[in-house]
């Protein structure tokens, strides 16, 4: 009899399942925490000067910049904290994903950097899409309070 749940695909090398299956939740948690903390780090400079990006956001067509610049700051800084701890994971990750899709447009189109300039933003947007769809796991504040948005 196999230790593998029937809801999971069968591994190609079943003998290795005992090595990696116990860590799947932990690996997902590490990805969520690292992504959230890196977003916090990226947003730290913006949160201490929330109106510092007014010109940049208006340059992208987001008017008024005095509204969008602090929203960008809060999305990166506080959204990153929420994703990292796993609280309101889906909405925080969704907001981060939307913000990152704007950076894909900014780097890829506005600055003319193409795929090479947008690839990090694409990767980050995909990571936050994963958490926007999946939510957090058992190792999160959402799970501890018994709620998931």
**In angstroms, what is the radius of gyration?**
18 Å
Q: Report the uncertain regions.
A: 1-5
Overall 3D geometry? globular
Distance between the termini: 37 Å
Major sheet details: none
Which H/E pattern describes the elements?
HHHHHHH
User: How much helix is in the residues?
Assistant: 55-70%
Mean pLDDT: 90
SSE diagram, text form:
Layout lengths: L16 H4 L3 H25 L5 H6 L5 H21 L3 H22 L3 H21 L6 H4 L5
Helix pairs in contact: 2-4, 4-5, 5-6
Give your account of this protein's structure.
By secondary structure, the protein is an all-alpha fold. It has one domain (33-143). Helix content is 69%, strand content 0%. Helix 2 (24-48) packs antiparallel against helix 4 (65-85). The radius of gyration is 18 Å and the shape is globular. The protein starts with 16 loop residues before the first helix and ends in a 5-residue tail after the last helix.
List key phrases describing it.
149 residues, mainly alpha, 69% helix, disordered N terminus
Compose a concise summary of this entry.
This protein is mainly α and 149 residues long.
